[in-house]
Amino acid sequence: MSATGSSNPEYVNARVRSRRGALYDDEDYRKLLRMGPAEIARFMEESTYEEEINALGARFSGVDLIEFALNRNLAKQFNDILDWANGRLYDLIARYLRKFDAWNVKTVIRGIYTDTPREEVETDLIRAGEFGDRRIERLLEATTIEEVVDSLDGTIYGRPLRAAYDDYEESGVLVPLENAVDRAFYENLLDGLVVNEATEQYREFLYAEIDFRNARNALRLARSGADIDPSEYYIDGGRLFSATELSQLAQNPDELVSRIRDSVYGDRLSSALDELERADSLIGFERALEAALLEYSGSLGHVFPLSVSPVISYILAKEREVENIRAIARGREAGLSEDEIEEELVIL
Amino acid sequence: MFETLPELANVALQAEGTASGPAIEPSAAAALAVGLAAFGAGYAERGIGAAAVGAIAEDESLFVQGLILTVLPETLVILALVVIFLV
Questions:
Q1: Residue A61 CB partners (closer than 8 Å, separation 6+)
Q2: Which among A326, B30, B44, B68 is least buried, having the fewest CB atoms inside 10 angstroms?
Q3: What global pTM score does this model have?
Q4: What per-residue confidence (pLDDT) applies to A237?
Q5: Is the minimum CB–CB distance between B47 and chain A shorter than 8 Å?
Q6: Looking at the complex, does the CB of residue A8 fall below 8 Å from at least one CB of chain B?
């Protein structure tokens, strides 16, 4: 609603906890795994997604319908939370939801780069961040990447994007631009955060998110063997690695794994690390990272019930649900077996 | 300033000597106690009420539970009323 006035964690947390209780559980996922796209859509219609399925049902069908309904519901849920929250609570939530702004900016840039029609780009946007409809409209109207950069002047992405634009013009690849957006988001996460007893947990969680992201990037680079400087992908603000350390560790995946094992996250990730060493499966490790983050955020909500933590944990859980349903629907469409799809899911 | 100190002490001592009994009447003190208890109850209900309304907005069947939990701190005021009969 507004960034002034006192915050109201009691109200927001009561609503968020209720919505969290309505998320799909193990039993529901087991049912969904056996369904085809049409059945999944019907199943969704009988739960929290009723409104979106009904609104989009006439225009789309099958997996597209599921995907658009999921995106729309995600945006609606998160906008609801921002509507309820006041004062400092709003600031803390908006800080995290800016990741959808980053997503939207990247989607628009990719759309322009690949000459995708405006309508298709528009359906891929998730309007859950801080950008209003007017700014998104201006982003969509842009026909060149330079216009996108111009229209973002004055936001946190403005300056980093402008700096990255020259790189883009030289190299002609999108990596510098996407990096600039991601880094602007992550570096603003911790910027100016007032740390007291209630937000300390939140800060711990943000550290964990940045550390995990750094670890994932380093591992990906190490695996791909590409000749890219890892420090270019480094996100400032985590606790686990510094930029130079990360560049060294990316050359040597074994050392990187043992480094993570010795860190504060070691206990939580030990099974994932074992799997990574044994099976060489980067995908499995990334799933485990996501599950660990989800579990961590869930436990934070119990430590400080009247802080922002329960809201963040709901946001993560909701995102996982959306990704899970999408994975099931896409997997079914592609004819994967139930076991194969189940491996793609992150269920707690 | 130091020269005036003994004089000030004299005045203070005299004032203590002449004022007999407590600063406020017992019934006034009891009224204050009840008022403060009501203030505490009101503050407690603020948080509970906000949470209860949030829960009811999501699920209407929680109305009764929400109402009961919201008025629970009222017991504070009722217990504080005992003070009125003690004085």
A1: A38
A2: B68
A3: 0.81
A4: 74
A5: yes
A6: yes
